[in-house]
Write a structure and sequence with these properties.
Layout: E1 9-10, E2 13-14, H1 83-103, H2 113-126, E3 130-131, E4 144-147, E5 150-152, E6 166-175, E7 178-187, H3 193-211, H4 220-232, E8 236-237, E9 243-245, E10 252-256, E11 273-276, E12 279-281, E13 287-289, E14 296-298, E15 304-306, E16 309-313, E17 318-320
Antiparallel strand pairs: 1-2, 3-6, 4-6, 5-14, 6-7, 8-12, 9-10, 11-16, 12-15, 13-14, 16-17
Helix pairs in contact: 1-2, 3-4
């Protein structure tokens, strides 16, 4: 099922309100030699039960029910954060980056993504914070782990990491009433040159998008800068996966498109906080969603890579909060 030409998704937030049809697993071959040498994720693993959260941890509104009730509609104007809110966002974003950097130590051959989830969950809870993905619209785990041809929203399971895997880890935390969000792609063991090139292009494209930000600039400048850089280097942007505003809510306006296929109107203003998180793939940018309703894979089995920062628009430019 192809969502690229008519919807954009962040989390399970589909901009036009359409939920794609879910696909069965085991639809793909094991290797695409023109994209390099790697294992194609061709089925969903076994997912363990959601992890428990102590009563003393402050919970987001959806934590117990899975129902999101406090996110502004994407048609609403982006929120302008005040000084106090910005300081709280700095703290949550800094902590998210700390968790992401710490999770990198767990990405070893033989470890499972469920092991990574356990580590991330415990680290967040030990710091009196809540893992934002947990039970968000029913998501069962505390972090997203996306391997090779899984480009976004991979659900941690019992699959062991293999030598040569690329894995994107997306960490989001809820600390003192505010969310922080960041992601990066890492090598497991020895990754081929095609994979390393993909990672480099994806990371640099994120920074190209961030460099296009500033007061008075159009939101569409972000996608234009990202897409130009990626195409110049022979890769493609998955246009249906977007960035988002963030604050006391996990996802909200503005919608940050990473290509020119879609356009979000308006200009950036000081105090706006949002993520820039392009997904770049080796082959065609069409994607499909597996039967769990979350796992997004490339239609042609090519690998993807994603990097993400949360940024603040300032009076004279931008500030990366997830550092």
């Amino acid at each position: 099922m192809n969502i690229c030409k008519n919807v954009a998704v962040c989390g399970r937030w589909f901009v036009n309100g359409t939920t794609p049809q879910r696909l069965s697993k085991s639809l793909w071959t094991k290797l695409q030699t023109n994209f390099g040498v790697y294992d194609v994720v061709d089925h969903l693993g076994t997912v363990s039960d959601p992890r428990t959260v102590p009563e003393y941890v402050t919970l987001p509104s959806y934590a117990k029910t899975g129902i999101v009730v406090d996110e502004p509609h994407h048609d609403c104007p982006p929120e302008i954060q005040n000084k106090g809110q910005i300081e709280m966002l700095r703290q949550s974003c800094k902590f998210a980056k700390f968790v992401l950097d710490s999770a990198k130590t767990q990405l070893k051959v033989g470890a499972t993504t469920d092991n990574v989830d356990q580590f991330v969950h415990d680290l967040i809870i030990d710091n009196n914070a809540y893992p934002s993905p947990l039970n968000y619209r029913g998501f069962k785990k505390s972090v997203c782990t996306s391997i090779n041809n899984v480009v976004c929203h991979g659900v941690p399971d019992d699959r062991p990491l293999l030598n040569g895997d690329l894995i994107s880890v997306d960490v989001s935390v809820y600390l003192n009433g505010f969310h922080g969000d960041c992601a990066a792609t890492y090598c497991v063991g020895e990754v081929d040159d095609c994979g390393k090139k993909l990672m480099s292009i994806a990371e640099q494209s994120m920074y190209k998008g961030i460099e296009a930000c500033g007061p008075g600039k159009s939101f569409s400048d972000i996608g234009r800068a990202i897409e130009l850089y990626v195409l110049q280097h022979g890769h493609f942007v998955v246009s249906s996966i977007t960035g988002h505003g963030i604050g006391t809510y996990f996802h909200g306006p503005p919608v940050i498109f990473h290509s020119t296929l879609h356009n979000y109107p308006g200009i950036m203003k000081p105090g706006m906080v949002f993520t820039v998180e392009p997904v770049v793939c080796q082959g065609d940018s069409d994607v499909e969603i597996l039967e769990d309703g979350w796992t997004i894979v490339t239609a042609d089995n090519s690998r993807g890579a994603q990097f993400e920062h949360t940024i603040l628009i300032t009076d004279d430019g931008y500030d990366i909060l997830t550092v």
